[in-house]
What we know:
Blueprint: H1 2-9, E1 17-21, H2 25-36, E2 40-44, H3 48-69, H4 74-86, E3 88-91, H5 94-97, E4 103-106, H6 112-125, E5 131-134, H7 141-145, E6 154-158, E7 168-173, H8 179-191, E8 195-200, H9 207-223, H10 229-240, H11 246-253, H12 255-263, H13 268-271, H14 282-289
Parallel strand pairs: 1-2, 1-4, 2-3, 4-5, 5-6, 7-8
Antiparallel strand pairs: 6-7
Helix pairs in contact: 1-8, 2-3, 3-4, 9-11
Bound molecules: acetoacetyl-coenzyme A and nicotinamide-adenine-dinucleotide.
Pathway: Lipid metabolism; fatty acid beta-oxidation
GO molecular function: (3S)-3-hydroxyacyl-CoA dehydrogenase (NAD+) activity; NAD+ binding
EC number: 1.1.1.35
Amino acid sequence: xxxxxxxxxxxxxxxxxxxxxxxxxxxxxxxxxxxxxxxxxxxxxxxxxxxxxxxxxxxxxxxxxxxxxxxxxxxxxxxxxxxxxxxxxxxxxxxxxxxxxxxxxxxxxxxxxxxxxxxxxxxxxxxxxxxxxxxxxxxxxxxxxxxxxxxxxxxxxxxxxxxxxxxxxxxxxxxxxxxxxxxxxxxxxxxxxxxxxxxxxxxxxxxxxxxxxxxxxxxxxxxxxxxxxxxxxxxxxxxxxxxxxxxxxxxxxxxxxxxxxxxxxxxxxxxxxxxxxxxxxxxxxxxxxxxxxxxxxxxxxxxxx
Length: 305
Ligand code: CAA
Ligand code: NAD
């Protein structure tokens, strides 16, 4: 490990400007922490309306961070918010937004065709040295890298929701990812205050490969009527030290997101057919078909608004 980090540090470039594509839940969090830690950031989304909402969301989150970080010095807190906001610009023109950037982090909708189209366009527009990374939860990074001519400058940066709070960042490397690129991604992760772990490009990397089967087993427990949602959550919080119970977590992350991984576009049930942990759940599918997606729609397994 030591040998690799020595040899790979040669030629690695410091990331100064970051372009985050997608200003949704994850993209706005990523843009926020990058700006918060001194990077110049451009956040891209499809319309000014969406970007205005992303900025409002960031401001709300920043004020929570400022309140905590500068508890005894509100003026310093105000400065911190202003400085961070100053470093953050927005753009609806993807090509324009990558003209002078060192790192592009893609956090758009989890759809392989749309992501590939985006990356292929970016490949023509961005400078040679620019590193590309995807925040995908469940799609293979290699399928995204192949729509570019820079697999050596391509990797995964998998953040967790809520981005400003969760300390972990998974850095995914392909066999083609160069040592210098990988080191730049790790350095960037540390610069934005995360603890990084290295993962290969296998389904779910580390966290979701373990978290998804665990959550699906909790849903099946509920489905069989073996325990109530409340009891499953209390059991795992108090009995196993989780900050959220598994059913509560599905409501938080989104029922559609979980379905998407199991038997939606990512189809882990098909890519791992011998593993019953990835079997679809009728209860989950029924709630999704009724539009009950959890926190984002106000109704899910436990949430009833
Ligand atoms: N921005 C800034 N700060 C925030 C925040 C945000 N969006 N959300 C919460 N916080 C801060 C709060 O200000 C609060 O700070 P203090 O402790 O200083 O008061 C702290 O975080 C805790 O928040 P709350 O008191 O509101 O609530 P909580 O204690 O219940 O924590 C939680 C909320 C952080 C979401 C916590 O329950 C948690 O960590 N849950 C687990 C989330 C998780 O597992 N995420 C991973 C999902 S999987 C994934 O993301 C991968 C994927 O590919 C799908
Ligand atoms: P989201 O729906 O909140 O945001 C996606 C944003 O991308 C939207 O604002 C949409 O307008 C924008 N967008 C779509 N196509 C675009 C394009 N071509 N150009 C520019 N913007 C475009 O989704 P999210 O939850 O932020 O997820 C984004 C990515 O992060 C997905 O790949 C997802 O798998 C991954 N992820 C999600 C979570 C989570 O808990 N939600 C956690 C880790 C990773």
